[in-house]
Design brief:
Layout: H1 2-97
Length: 99
């Protein structure tokens, strides 16, 4: 009977040792998950901080492109109309000064 109690105590110690190892393993996994979660939050914040200025830059580039397009349209229209305007001006001056 004494051996039986000693065996039970040894088995209980062994079980407690296994449980302790299991707790240590779970604690390590918990710490690792917390680290990964922290890295994920940092990555998200960094992406947000990068995206905000890029959105602003992108919007300003679009506005600038629209203004350049409008300027090019006005410039090309002016260049096309200039010979006509000059011809009308010459005819008008000729009519005024050479009756």
């Amino acid at each position: 009977m004494k051996e039986s109690i000693e065996q039970q105590i040894a088995a209980a110690k062994h079980c407690m040792g296994c449980m302790h190892e299991g707790f240590i393993f779970m604690e390590e996994r918990l710490v690792q998950s917390e680290r990964l979660a922290t890295i994920g939050r940092f990555a998200s914040q960094i992406a947000h901080e990068i995206r905000n200025p890029l959105s602003s830059i992108s919007l300003n580039v679009e506005l600038l492109a629209e203004r350049v397009y409008i300027f090019d349209s006005i410039t090309s229209m002016t260049i096309r109309k200039t010979p006509t305007i000059l011809a009308v001006k010459d005819d008008t001056w000729s009519t005024i000064f050479n009756p």
